[in-house]
């Protein structure tokens, strides 16, 4: 089977690689002349599936009714909306319940963990070497910033993500080079995440 992948960013290239490994004939198309010249160029290098979902989807922490209302903000019903249209809208709304959201988040975490394992397997198989370090640290300069992160921290813990809460003294012990004009309040260490160049 021949498959076309549109976009040669990190998602397009990794998708093409996996498909090729499964025996498909893959062609990647991109408007640029080389891979990763768009949004994927010079990204942060943080491989942190632990944090991707809670930080990019803050509504996960909202009650389902509020989440549903926010989802309707930009929706407009056209003239001549049929009964079947309304039935579809009702079903779509029901899919935003707390149980459905929790199932989707659990599945997404499982996918993130699988992706990280797959990346490590490819790195080992191809003897790919790159500069990096194990673990990822989040620093909170103030008590308010640490409190703001608590809902996200609860989500991480509920999904079995290994995370260690750090005091100001712990931060200095973990990274002696970490300095600030004012003492930092606290932090979180995620030992299973990585930083890579």
In words, what does this structure look like?
With 197 residues, the chain is of the alpha+beta class. It is 46% helix and 18% strand. It has eight helices and six strands, in the order βαββααααβααβαβ. The chain has helices at 10-21, 49-56, 64-71, 83-94, 98-125, 143-148, 150-158, 168-174, and strands at residues 2-6, 25-29, 46-47, 132-140, 164-167, 186-196. Strands 3, 4, 5 and 6 form a four-stranded antiparallel sheet that branches. A two-stranded parallel sheet has the order 1-2. The protein starts with a strand and ends with a strand. The model has no long low-confidence stretch (mean pLDDT 81).
Which helices and strands appear, and what pairs or packs with what?
Elements: E1 2-6, H1 10-21, E2 25-29, E3 46-47, H2 49-56, H3 64-71, H4 83-94, H5 98-125, E4 132-140, H6 143-148, H7 150-158, E5 164-167, H8 168-174, E6 186-196
Parallel strand pairs: 1-2
Antiparallel strand pairs: 3-6, 4-6, 5-6
Question: What's this, in brief?
Answer:
This protein is of the alpha+beta class. The chain is built from eight helices and six strands; from the N terminus they run E-H-E-E-H-H-H-H-E-H-H-E-H-E. It has helices spanning 10-21, 49-56, 64-71, 83-94, 98-125, 143-148, 150-158, 168-174; strands at residues 2-6, 25-29, 46-47, 132-140, 164-167, 186-196.
Tags for this model:
197 residues; 6 strands; two-stranded parallel ribbon; alpha+beta
Number of H/I helices: 8
Which percent bin holds the helix content? 40-55%
* Average pLDDT rating: 81
Question: How large a portion of the residues is in β-strands, by DSSP E?
Answer: 15-25%
Main beta-sheet annotation: 4 strands, antiparallel
**Low-confidence sequence ranges:** none
Q: Helices and strands: which structural class?
A: alpha+beta
Gyration radius over CA:
21 Å
Number of strands: 6
How far the N terminus sits from the C terminus, by CA atoms, comes to: 35 Å
Molecular shape = extended
Q: Helix and strand succession?
A: EHEEHHHHEHHEHE
- Assembly type: single chain
């Amino acid at each position: 089977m021949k498959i076309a992948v549109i976009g040669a960013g990190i998602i397009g290239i990794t998708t093409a690689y996996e498909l090729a490994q499964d025996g498909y004939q893959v062609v990647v198309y991109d408007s640029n002349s080389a891979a990763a010249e768009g949004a994927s160029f010079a990204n942060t290098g943080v491989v942190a599936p632990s944090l991707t979902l809670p930080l990019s989807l803050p509504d996960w922490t909202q009650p389902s009714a509020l989440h549903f209302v926010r989802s309707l903000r930009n929706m407009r019903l056209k003239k001549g909306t049929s009964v079947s249209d309304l039935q579809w809208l009702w079903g779509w709304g029901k899919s935003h319940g707390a149980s459905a959201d929790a199932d989707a988040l659990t599945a997404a975490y499982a996918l993130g963990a699988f992706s990280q394992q797959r990346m490590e397997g490819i790195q080992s198989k191809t003897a790919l070497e790159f500069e990096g370090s194990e673990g990822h640290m989040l620093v909170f300069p103030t008590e308010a910033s640490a409190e703001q992160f608590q809902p996200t921290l609860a989500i991480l813990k509920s999904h079995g993500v290994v995370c260690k809460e750090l005091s100001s003294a712990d931060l200095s012990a973990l990274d002696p080079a970490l300095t600030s004009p004012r003492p930092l309040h606290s932090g979180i260490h995620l030992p299973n995440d990585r930083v890579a160049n």
